[in-house]
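A reminder from the course coordinator: this example appears on the midterm review sheet, so study it carefully.

Given structure:
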């Protein structure tokens, strides 16, 4: 029960007169105030004063109307007040625990120190943690039994369908044949690793060289580089000779002749070099054949001189190279190139090669 439902007096009504004058009271309060004023002259006089004051204030010019005539400022204030009241009435948000939140805040405040700390952490992980993990894996692997099965050799059908994806030469530990890694695509992808002494590796390399029309020139050049260390092998030598005679790419023919340098004293290799001198249409290939032939003759003479020095009591007839018919064929071929070759550079190189070999009597 409110105060207006009881007997009211001036002390209860006086504070409400200003709200009555501004029309800010409820209907019940309005009825109570009007009933009291009808019987109280003092409160009626006070209400008259409040009404006069309210009329005077309304009639006077308002500074707020001049500054905010459209009411935008008032609307904004009311909107902000409503939002603040909504925030106060909403339940408080409980923050979840964030691990290492203090570390993130510290790194955000000190970016330079944070970057240095991350670099140091990466160095420690790379130099200490990873080797430790690898050693642990190796120890576990050494303690386990492993079943090893020999891989089957490559078949002719696989060779006929294979595609060479790439050839790599990883660093080799010894000074012998270089290590080779072949990436093959046949019925299924295959990576073949080893050196040219391995039967499968040698077979694939020679197959690529002998069937040059199926493979890229760059692949053939890489195969020739790998086979160079095994040029004394009969299978490898025949593949190199075939490439020197039949390959359509001059660079591949030159590389094949260069790979035959160690076996240039053999009859079949020397005949292939002579064929290149007389029939190859590329001047660069003919010059390479001249270089390989001259190098083989000089190497042979140096071996004979070393043999003479080792056995001083042995009488050797001067000019043993002249008795070799293949050497005479080389000299004749060089003399023909010197006079008839259409390339001036080949003629000059042939003349220089004859001077290097030395004077010879050609029958």
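Designed residues:
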């Amino acid at each position: 029960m409110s105060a207006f439902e009881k007997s009211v007096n001036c002390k209860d009504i006086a504070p409400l007169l200003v709200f009555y004058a501004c029309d800010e009271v409820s209907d019940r309060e309005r009825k109570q105030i009007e009933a009291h004023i009808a019987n109280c002259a003092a409160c009626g006089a006070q209400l008259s004063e409040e009404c006069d004051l309210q009329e005077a204030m309304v009639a006077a010019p308002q500074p707020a109307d001049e500054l905010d005539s459209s009411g935008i400022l008032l609307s904004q204030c009311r909107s902000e007040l409503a939002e603040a009241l909504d925030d106060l009435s909403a339940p408080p948000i409980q923050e979840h625990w964030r691990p290492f939140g203090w570390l993130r805040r510290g790194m955000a405040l000190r970016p330079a120190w944070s970057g240095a700390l991350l670099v140091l952490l990466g160095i420690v992980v790379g130099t200490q943690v990873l080797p430790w993990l690898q050693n642990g894996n190796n120890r576990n692997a050494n303690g386990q039994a492993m079943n090893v099965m020999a891989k089957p050799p490559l078949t002719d059908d696989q060779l006929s369908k294979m595609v060479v994806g790439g050839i790599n030469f990883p660093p080799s530990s010894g000074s012998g044949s270089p290590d080779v890694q072949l990436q093959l695509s046949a019925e299924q992808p295959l990576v073949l690793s080893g050196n040219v002494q391995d039967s499968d590796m040698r077979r694939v390399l020679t197959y690529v060289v002998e069937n040059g029309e199926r493979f890229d020139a760059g692949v053939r050049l890489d195969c020739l580089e790998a086979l160079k260390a095994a040029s004394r092998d009969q299978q490898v030598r025949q593949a190199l000779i075939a490439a020197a005679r039949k390959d359509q790419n001059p660079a591949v023919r030159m590389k094949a002749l260069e790979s035959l340098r160690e076996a240039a004293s053999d009859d079949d290799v020397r005949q292939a070099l002579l064929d290149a001198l007389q029939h190859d249409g590329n001047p660069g290939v003919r010059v390479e054949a001249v270089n390989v032939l001259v190098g083989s003759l000089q190497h042979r003479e140096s071996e004979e001189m070393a043999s003479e020095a080792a056995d001083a009591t042995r009488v050797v007839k001067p000019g043993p190279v002249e008795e070799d018919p293949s050497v005479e064929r080389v000299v004749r071929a060089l003399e023909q190139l010197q006079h008839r070759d259409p390339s001036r550079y080949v003629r000059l190189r042939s003349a220089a090669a004859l001077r290097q070999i030395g004077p010879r009597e050609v029958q």
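The first helix runs from residue 10 to 13. The radius of gyration is 53 Å.
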